[in-house]
Specification:
Elements (H helix, E strand, L loop, with lengths): L1 H27 L1 H23 L11 H21 L2 H9 L3 H9 L6 H17 L1 E4 L2 E4 L3 H48 L7 H24 L5 H8 L2 H12 L6 H18 L1
Antiparallel strand pairs: 1-2
């Protein structure tokens, strides 16, 4: 029960952060928003670890480093996908990342149920339908789909190493993850040199996005010591439901009927995988 609640808490935190962050990224640019969000998240987790005042439990927390590389690649692709495509299309496709930890679980000895296998099939068909749109009578891949698939791959490969690190010491796993992610984004900023200034209000909102994303990381890492990677990862992958609901309520995005079917199928697949 504790693993379920922690993983669902992670999906809620990520769902809100992954709506607000990309929304601000549409105006200010992905790298600018990510830099300040990572800094805000790093400050929050650093304070928590400092107050806790305990050293890492074991070297396995270092698995958070490769998790950060995968997760940051996925997050940048996600932000860019949200900038050029509809959130209600990009988020469910990225949420299909749940398929990867299930496959990882199978390879390491987990036995998926028939419902989970059906969920994987739903997610794959749903991604295919959500990816296609009709334009002037012709069918083409919708904007942002390629980036959404790249985000799904990055997020999917984030889960197994972060699960390993979190099951050892979720506090230190979280700060190592956030430190590495900040370093990656800072390096990208140094190369690309985008403008960095934000108005105070926007800076506070973006920093809060980083704190929300970090809360999701901490909750997922904490759930790792209570459940299998194939369970906690897919429950945490329910975040697109929150993002899609917010996008529909706030942005009133319009998508084709076939894409709406694909979105529903993808989200259904993620839910079935989590059963």
């Amino acid at each position: 029960m504790s693993a379920l609640l922690l993983a669902l808490g992670a999906s809620l935190a990520w769902g809100v952060a992954d709506f607000v962050g990309p929304l601000w990224g549409r105006t200010w640019g992905a790298l600018r928003v990510l830099l300040w969000a990572e800094l805000g998240g790093l400050a929050g987790i650093a304070l928590a670890v400092l107050v806790r005042g305990e050293p890492p439990a074991a070297w396995a927390v270092l698995y958070a480093v490769p998790a950060a590389f995968c997760g940051t690649l996925g997050l940048y692709a996600y932000y860019r996908g949200m900038a050029v495509g509809a959130m209600t299309v990009v988020a469910p496709i990225a949420g299909a990342s749940a398929v990867i930890p299930v496959i990882f679980g199978i390879l390491t000895g987990d036995n998926p149920s028939t419902v989970q296998v059906a969920g994987i099939a739903c997610a794959i068909v749903g991604v295919a339908l959500a990816s296609l749109e009709q334009t002037s009578g012709a069918t083409r891949v919708a904007a942002g789909v390629g980036l959404a698939i790249l985000a799904a791959i990055g997020f999917g490969f984030y889960f197994p190493p972060m699960h390993e690190a979190g099951s050892t010491d979720f506090w230190w796993a979280s700060i190592l993850f956030r430190t590495t992610a900040f370093a990656i984004v800072a390096a990208a900023v140094a190369v690309k040199r985008p403008p960095l200034r934000l108005r105070r209000r926007d800076l506070l909102i973006v920093a809060a996005v980083g704190v929300g994303d970090t809360i999701g990381n901490v909750l997922y890492a904490a759930s790792s010591s209570h459940g299998l990677v194939s369970l906690t990862s897919v429950l945490a992958s329910l975040y697109p439901i929150v993002t899609v609901m917010l996008a529909a309520a706030v942005l009133h995005e319009h998508v084709a009927t076939s894409q709406r079917v694909g979105i529903v199928l993808t989200l259904t697949g993620v839910v079935l995988i989590s059963v």
